[in-house]
Amino acid sequence: MATTTSAVAVLTKALARPNPTPHLLLRALRAAGLEVTRTADRPAWMPTTPDAYALVKQAADWHIAGLTPQEIAGRMRRSTRMINRYLAAAAAIPGLLDPFEEQR
From CA 76, how far away is CA 36, in angstroms rounded? Predict the structure, then answer.
């Protein structure tokens, strides 16, 4: 009789240990023979049109000016979740969140 280890069983056991960290949870899954894929280098959503890029740039400009994602969401009439997507995309585009980055 072959026994299989489920991800739930592995995570339950790993979470029962003191001070579980995301790294240790992933290591436990790998050690159990479960496939753990690496995250993408870039965000899942990136602007593909000039209008979308303009939204990302506007969110980045306001973020640099010191506004919180909630304040930006209010000004742009978008959800905080969408603003977080814009800011993640801006972080992946050289020069948007760090204007000096493209000069390096």
Answer: 37
pTM above 0.70, yes or no: no
DSSP the chain: ------HHHHHHHHHTSSS--HHHHHHHHHHTT---PPPPSS-S----SHHHHHHHHHHHHHHHTT--HHHHHHHHT--HHHHHHHHHHHHHSTTTS-TTGGG-
Q: Which domain holds residue 85?
A: 50-103
Dump pLDDT digits (tens) for 87-104.
999 999 988 887 665 544
Domain assignment present for residue 44? The answer is: no
